[in-house]
Fold these 2 entries.
Entry 1:
Amino acid sequence: MAETTRTKRHFRWTTGLIIGIALMSVMILIGLLAPLFLSEAAEKLTANASQGPSSAHWLGTDDFGRDVLARSLVATRLTLVMTAATTAISVVGGVLIGTFIWLAPPRIRNAVLRVIDAAVAYPSLIFALLIAAILGQGAWSAVLAIAIASIPAFARLTANMAASISQRNYVSTARLLGVPGPRIITRHLLPNMAEPLLVLTATVFATTLIELSSLSFIGLGVQNPEYDFGRLLNEALVNIYSQPLQAVMPSIMITIAGLSAMLIGDGLAAATDPRGGRKFGSVKAASELPASMRADREALVEVDNLTVLTPNGVPLVKGVSLSIHAGEVVGLVGESGSGKSLTAMSIAGLLPEELTVRAHSMRLGELDLLKKNDPRTLATSIGLVYQDPGTSFNPALRIGSQLTEVSRIHLKQSGKTSFTRMVKALADIRITQPELRMKQHPHELSGGMLQRAMIASTLVTDPRLIIADEPTTALDVTVQADVLRQFRTINREMGTAMLFISHDIGVVQALCDKVIVMNGGKILERLTGAQLAAGDVKHPYTKALLAATPSIAERKTELVAVRAEDFTFDEITDDALGPVQAGTVQPETERLQP
Amino acid sequence: MTSTAMSAAPVLEVRDLEVTFGSGQAAAKVLKGVSATIERGKTLGIVGESGSGKSTLAKAIVGLNPVSSGSIWVNGADVSRMTSGQRRAMRREVQMIPQDPYSSLNPRRTIGQTLAEAIDPVKSNPRAHREKISYWLSTIRLDADVAERYPHEFSGGQRQRIAIARALAVGPKLIIADEITSALDLSVQAEILNLISRLRTELDLTMAFISHDLDVVHHVSDGIMVLFHGEVVELGDVDSVYGNPKHPYTRKLIDSVPGGPGFDIGERRAAVA
């Protein structure tokens, strides 16, 4: 169950975010306090015009004898207020237009989207200049101009997000429930867009600041006697040779304000990305304990006391020992969270790096799987077949180049040799027109054909072991039957050992010689395929799983609802039935119609 | 199975339904003359592989796919010929339980808010509907206090139960369950199938149960419809279809179920030690 109940995401404070918020707080504080205390120094005309830096005026004075530092600090308030207002208008306007586009009938939606596309393609600053020229000079016309110019980008982004969220099931369900459109927006769309919109808002704040300052700088924005950073730069330009310091402070302030907004935006983006913040633990650390007696020296694959730990030390696989003999098909069956895939991927050496793998021993033939092995040896000794053939192929490349990759890179075969071998392998597993298939792209083949091609490609390197992780789960039932037969034939004809992972008891019992039942990171029972098929099982968990499986063979009046966490006790072997108590299975009392 | 007296029209009647996507040369006929009926209180299992048109059929019934020809009658009214206004009024008659319990609940709304929206789509204040919410929660065997909690606090099986409660709370005439157990673990699947079985008798549900899993359909359905490339190849009582399939495709489908009586891995396996 650990996989299904996701824990609430923790907010991650990054250094960038903290610095951004600190800088922004300082700016806001300056904006609040400077006009209260420094207005006089900043605005009173004095006789000390155009002075250099002194103890009275740290950055000197301007043409009218006003303190440059004080003016820069006081200008913070107007700049921040204007930027905030602009951002607010463009965000609100953009979100409104963006969501209502989504509500509109398709024809209007497409027309409006094209208009917005055109507006986005036009440089927003030039667009803003145009609007400012029409509205006339002044602080608030600059605000409006920039706000209107940045609305299209925001509207398009919102429309795109709304389009993707509206594909989610809860939105289509809400429509079926008869929820009116505007309420779908407020209840279902907006709350789920909040995070990216917030991040974008911070970014827009930064760009708006630059654009407003630019307008004021070229004289279209804030007019005398008001002043913002842009206006100060405009005044400083005249004296850039005589009073260069006059331009320095507003520039620094613009940079700090923009930087802090950007840092906050990036920090928020990182904090809301659930994939971020991975911690990396140690790679394989072999335990120093002596090899236990359970290990089977004769076997092809031998895993002795395998443990897989998360970076926090939580065990996911708790001491699993298994062996696979040459020519044997071993099934690992269990539900999600049982550790079956982790066990298999440890053998293949393909676990995520943050997981720690420990074992007394783990080997494939003479190959010690606990050591760092030559990738070539690994790639040619173990063949892997994944669950979803649709995603394990790169859609942009031809089938042929993907299937022959291992032979070309690891076996150093020429392109031609590997091609002919692969064609033969495809023909061997009865794929029609193998030469044509090699030249096709993945989307041109059906799922079953892709999966068979994947199996064929693992065979050309003549691996000693094939690990198949739910290889038929994504396939249709008739195709699944074909692929299972294929596995069986390969195993019988080539004697390749297989480790076959599945949640489907029917699949495992049909294919596997031996079946290992896993739950909660432990092995609960070892059976032969025939035993499982006959229902000859001992462990209550296995019994419960069988009872929970609906079957076409018999119509069960009631399925037993298993709760995996009820079965915490250990593996039972044939001789020892001791520690297992009966009665842990809790059948629900609901029944079918009698 | 059981024979109840049928006085009224069937809850669902689909007549010669055709659905075509695209037009001209690129037109793809996805449903080619599908006919079926579901009587009150019965469950029709719809099985088929990918591309068979089973999801298209479900969407056509709830009105998400346009009908090219033929008709769909819900409770005696032809929904395929309705104006959009009539259609909107009829919308709540047919409800669909979606496949994926992880994307079917809005992560930002509490379970109470979600259910309240199903009870009243406009005035969906959970406090105003507290009694009904706890009634539906008790129907799916969850405590009334879960109404305050958010979807991420629940397991896949619990979420699927909540999605079922949401569909039931609308009070629909017909429920369409589209692959509702295929995203779930075996044990959770059993929990959901048991719930469905219980609700079928307790609430006299009328249901179309769509699945690719023949075992599951066998467990919950009264009748069964086998779709293949947009055509009904077999339609009948569950026991007769499974016990004595008439169409070779149905036979192949049933024999492909691993662990089923007809499945053959290619060689009748000699016992391996």
Note: Chain B has a mean pLDDT of 87.
Entry 2:
Amino acid sequence: MFEQLDALLLARIQFAFTVSFHFIFPAFSIGLASYLAVLEGLWLKTGKSIYLDLFKYWLKIFAIAFAMGVVSGIVMSYQFGTNWSKFSDIAGPVIGPLMAYEVLTAFFLEAGFLGVMLFGMNKVGKKLHFAATLMVAIGTFISAFWILSVNSWMQTPVGYEIGANGQYLPGESWWDIVFNPSFPYRLVHTVIAAYLTTAFVVGGVGAWHLLKDRTNLHARKMFSMAMWMAAIVAPIQIFAGDMHGLNTLEHQPQKVMAMEGHYESHPNGAPLILFGIPNSEEKRVDYAIEIPKASSLILKHDLNAPLAGLDTIPDDEEPPVGIVFWSFRIMVGIGFAMLGIGAWSLFARFRKKLYDWPLLHKAALVMAPSGFIAVLAGWITTEVGRQPYVIYNLLRTADAASPLDAPAVAASLLAFVIVYFVVFGAGVWYILHLMHKPPHAGEYGVKRGDTGPIRTAGITPGPSQNPGDPDTLPRDHEEATDGR
Amino acid sequence: MDVNVDLTTIWAFIIAFAVFAYVVMDGFDLGIGILFPTFDVGPERDRAMNSIAPVWDGNETWLVLGGGGLFAAFPLAYAVILPATYPLIIAMLLGLVFRGVAFEYRWRDPGHRRYWDAAFTGGSLVAAMAQGMTLGALLQGIEVVDRSYAGSWFDWFTPYTLLTGLGTVAGYALLGATWLVWKLEGDSQHHARSLAKKAAWSTLVLMGGVSLYNVFLNAEYAERWLTAPEIYFAAPVPILTAVIAIALLRALSVDRHSKPFWLSIALFFFGMAGLGVTMWPYVVPPGLTIWDAAAPERSQIFMLVGVAITMPLIIAYTAWAYWVFRGKVADEGYH
């Protein structure tokens, strides 16, 4: 029994680890694919080379992020079977087809057109190339559509029947399953989150180069575009998040109780706990700073509306409050910080200081990775908040795992941790290296080969020189070790 | 129930098609990875890499369709096979991680290029070996009790699975080498052709070994291949395989460009057909037939609609992507 529990915990840690690592990349590539499509579209429309330069600048970064997303994503598609075989058997008839649709309508589309997008500009012409870019961008969205439908069905399962063999079987209507109650909210909230994440990365890179050279037109352009996104989309996201929260209150009340830290029921209006330390032993929030009745106002739009607390939920159906309470606050805090940056940028624009306000640029730089943190915190909130269930109110996480021995799961977890930190650590390093280079006129695309042409007119490299791709890391290390 | 039987058969063929598409398409990518150390550092390696850089991602997607499709159409098989071959699947996934990122990283970091080239080869080799051994583990039988895998976690490790693993490595190397015969020219092509000859012989020997082993692996397989009337249906497979093998060796001994690659694919096709004859109608021998493991009719129909609409489109734009990058790979790569 104890061994089973260990294997279960290890399998949960493994899934949390691999899915968290994985989602970082699509959170970026969903937004970046759309940004690239916008840049290429603007280039085709206006003919201004600055857009093509920016397109090529970000395309190199996209190529690396996308590769990391692909290889970490394939791990996910097999993880259901390797570590959660009971779940796969029981839920396969309902969620399997949705995931098959994701492969058929999204993965092939992205992968099929990616080669042309990365390497085909000179082979297919501008318009077809733009079409390929659009297909990749659309593919990333369709992928989000299906996988979020799957996740939402696991949060708010509807439209199923229970078979004689214990499987969940699809009911009359696939529409009900795909468009389950939490899906539209989760889709909107997640896709906007991906756009915001990308906007802050682009804005942060623009800000970094403005801090070094505020006359860099390319840096100005990407900073301005990113700040428009922040100013317009951050408020929309806060509104969408609020709607998502209300939907969660309706369908998964104990998740909201954990988010709010409401151990007790409040018959006459519940307080909004801003901060505090959830104490699960005593079932109360220590050192709470709260606004009386504000939670009822937000969740029920009525100061005195009663709100039930975790005291109405059996102990073995409560999610872990501490994690959910904190991750929710991190997400919301970052959301409001993004709103602040967006508002500040509007003010700076109004004062005509958008490119000449180092403090704003520094703030944008600090905020560059904030989207990733917010996105992960949001997922932790929703995934931990539905525990102890993997399919809400139907299948407990503990009943979903594969019949594996703890050493097998521990060994594979260790392998994933080591490989992911090495491989994705290197990938992030290469991306940072590319971002470190200032964007400039005549930007290179994705180059393949050391023997490529050199653009510097009139200078032919001698045989001892190896000019290579100007965006690659220097060769110093290799030459040093070759000398052994 | 009659309708369901037919749908289940259709789905078995769809999954088989996805697996076949994966094996030949990512097979040549992985094969190039396996052969990579034999190429000269510099333009030869760059060209080999460039010949697959625009298509590898699409090729690998067939693996997701194979796995995702199995999950959707035969959830019980998916839920049994993956825990039974757990270390193999994890090894394959990690191998594919290294292989996949090497495509980007080797260009970004010349200082560490040889390490990423080694990761490319190591990842390809591990993935190929693990895939072949998984196939072997499936063919030798998986113990199932009460809808769950009931064996221990090293049941997959036997001389037979080592043989199927090596056979797959050799077969992928053959696909990779013949692809390069098609895409390269000059000395590099010459080099690829000599590799292809070695890989062809290795593949044929190992295929023969696996086939013989199959017959002795269990009585039911032997009956299928060696007794009448089954033998009349089964016999064309080895006969045609032999014909293809001779044609392949001949094509490699003369100056042909694309023909060896297509003949290698044909060889794989008959190899898979042979596996089909061996396994049918089991999806997890010896206990689970495709009907035991099949998803309900509603799931099958829903997905069949999707396949009917998207598959022609997928094949069309995949073919277009290959067409865009047709011809010999030039020195400078794509930019």
Note: The first helix of chain B runs from residue 2 to 35.
